[in-house]
Amino acid sequence: MSVPAKILSRESDSELLSAIAAGDCRSLKVLYLGYQQRLARFLLRFTQCRDNIEEIINDTFMVVWRNADDFRGASQVSSWIFGIAYRTALKSIRRQKKHTPAPSFDEWLVQTVDPVLEAEVQDWVMHGLNRLPEEQRLALELACHMGYSLLEIADITDVPVGTVKARMFLARQKLRQQLPTLGGASEL
Length: 188
Known about the structure:
Elements: H1 5-21, H2 25-43, H3 50-67, H4 77-96, H5 115-130, H6 134-145, H7 150-157, H8 161-182
Helix pairs in contact: 1-2, 2-3, 2-4, 3-4, 4-7, 5-8, 6-8, 7-8
């Protein structure tokens, strides 16, 4: 009987984190290389500047290095690392005060037969998402685009699960109200 790759990854991440806590630099490098691309894609939601993304990833792994022995296993290692990256990105954005809107939902939308219609729908949804408060938009993106559960999103954003649920509910509600208007539908 084979063990699913996701479980192996969790176990190996935990083992790497334990080795990092013991001061093993090689394990930090392995963990860094395993998360670098995923974190870069995640951080593109906050900033388009590649230099900022690299700096945030490096700062994230500095925190991992310093605090690996504080990890208690209450969440997955990946959720813990993404949470550190999220908080580090927020600090970086506050410092720079040059926050640009996150990229659109281009990858999220289902391909349609008509490319003009597809571009129009993407633009329509992007405008709706850009009108959402950052916390609500992030909750939707983490759930819909990255596939995180409510508990994982709560870990990443460092808020209670109820807050994540409320943010997602409010975001969907606002999108339901805004999208028909943005799409040119007249209100009755």
